[in-house]
Amino acid sequence: MLFYQPLTNICLKFYLYFLYKKVYIMVVTRFAPSPTGYLHIGGLRTALFSYLWARRNGGKFYLRIEDTDKKRNSQAAAEAILNAFEWLGLEADGEIVYQSERDDIYAKYIKQLLDEGKAYKCYMSKEELDALRQTQMENKERTMYDGRYRDFDGTPPEGIEPVIRIKAPQTGEIIVHDGVKGDVSFQAEDILDDFVIARADGSPTYNLVVAIDDALMGINEVIRGDDHLSNTPKQIVVYEALGFDVPKFYHVPMIHNAQGKKLSKRDGATDVMAYKDMGYLPEALLNFLVRLGWSHGDQEIFSMDEMKELFDPKDINKSASIYNTEKLDWLNAHYIKNTPNDTLVALLKDFDMKLEEHDKKEILLDALKERAKTLKELANMLVEILDAPTQYDPKASKKAFKSNAIEVLERFANSLEEVQELHLPVDYHHVMEKVVNEMEIGFGKIGNPLRVALLGKMSGPGLDVVMAVLGPDETLARIAKAVLAHAQD
RNA sequence: GGCCCCGUCGUCUAGCGGUUAGGAUCCAUGGUUUUCAUCCAUGUUACAGGAGUUCAAUUCUCCUCGGGGUCACCA
Question: What range defines the domain where residue A361 resides?
C-alpha cells in the first residue's frame, strides 16, 4: 500500500507531461526548398526526416517554397518538387507557402526593424564594397562590412539606392543549441557583421525571410542540412531582433559523393524522379534514405508506419555519409518481392508492359519478382519471356546442343503433344520428368537445350513456369524453331 | 586563410569505460535449383595517429593529421 501512492503520483506526472508535450508544444516542422531545379536526394532526406518527426509527434509538417530569387526560380521547378512528394506519398499539412507572395509581410518587419533602430540604410555602393573586400583580402583580414553607415545621420549620397542592414552584435557569444551537434558556439566578432536584410531593390534576403517565416508559421523544430549551421547565428540575430522564439535546430550532416564532396547535381542520379524512371519503388528509396545518417539499432527494413513510429532526430549521426546505392538495390529487390502482383501490374504500365489481360500473370510475376532488382529489370525479364528469342546465344547453344539434344527436344515435343490438359507449371514438369525417365538422362540434358530453345540463353526462371505462361502452342513453336536452327550445325 | 563540423569494416551503421568490437550491404566460398537469380550457411575486412585521465579506453580530455561545410545585395 505504501508503494502505490508515490507510484500513481509518478504516473500522473508522466501522463501530464506527455499531455502537455502533445497539446501545448506540438512539433511543427517544415521543408523549405528553393525551386531552382528538381528535388534531389539530399533535400528529400531532410524533408523525410522533418516529415517523420512531425508525424511521430502528431504535429505538423509544412512545405514552403523559397522563391524570392526571381532570376533563378521557376514554377516548373516548384512543380517538380511537388510531383516528387506525390510520388513518394509525402503529404504536407496546410497550404503550401510561397515566399514570393509574402513581400508585404517582409516589408512590414523590415520597417519595424528600421523604426526600432535595429536596422539601418547603408549607402555603400557595390564598387565600394568590392574594394573594401579586396583590401581586406590583401591584408589577410576577414572580409566583412565595416559598419560605416551603422550610426550615420548625415545627408545620404546622391544616386544610390541603399540596402538595409541589421545591427548585429559585435561582441559576445552566440550559441546554437543543436539537437544533432550539441551546443555550437560562435564568437560574434569572428562571424558576424551587419549583414544585408533587404537589397537595393527592396527585396528581402534569405536570412531574414527564413527567420520570419519559420516564426510566423510556428515552426519550432528545424531539421535541415548542416551546410546551414554557419547561417544559424545570423538567423538567431533576426529572431532576437524581432522578438521571436528561437526554434530547436537539428543540423543533419551532408550526403557526400564518392569523392567525399557535398552531393551536387553534377554527380548524376541525384534527381529523385530519376529513381522512379529507373524502376525504384518509393518505399525502397525512402527506406534507403532514412537509413542514411540515421539508425535504430540494427534494423534495416522500415515500413512507412515503422518510420513514423520510430524516427527520432536524436539518433541522427554526426558525420557525413557517402552516397552509395548498393544497398538501395538490395532494398528495392526486397520491396519488389513483397509487392502484390496487381500492384506490380499497375506499376509496370510505366515501363511499357501491359499485363492486365494476361491469364497467367500471377504465375509469371510470382516467378519473376523474386529475381528483379528494379521494375525496369522486371519489365525486361517479362519481355524476354513473352517475346520469342530472335537469336540464340552462341555460347549457350554450344553448351546445350551437344550429343543428342535435338533428339531429346523432339521426344519432349512429342510427349507434350500427347497431353490434353496443360495449364500449370506442374503439368509441364510431369512431361519433362516422363521424358527424363524414359530416356534415362539427367534433368540437365533436357533443361539446357529446352532453355535455349525457349529463351535463347542459359539463364532464366523455371522452365515449367515459362512453358505454362507460353502455353503448349507457343512452346512447341519455339522448340521447333530451335531444332531447325541447331540441326544445321 | 578565418570560423564551424566530422573521423568504427570498401559502403551504411551499432556501440554510449570492461564486448571474441555487433548487424546490413558488397565481395568470396559452399549448399539448394535443370540454369541464372532468390534463399540458406560460412568467411575476409574497421576503432586515423600520439599524449594524457583511469585499475581499465573505440568510448572522456588535449594535440596532430585527414576530410567536409561556410564565409554574397544566392538560397
Answer: 341-386
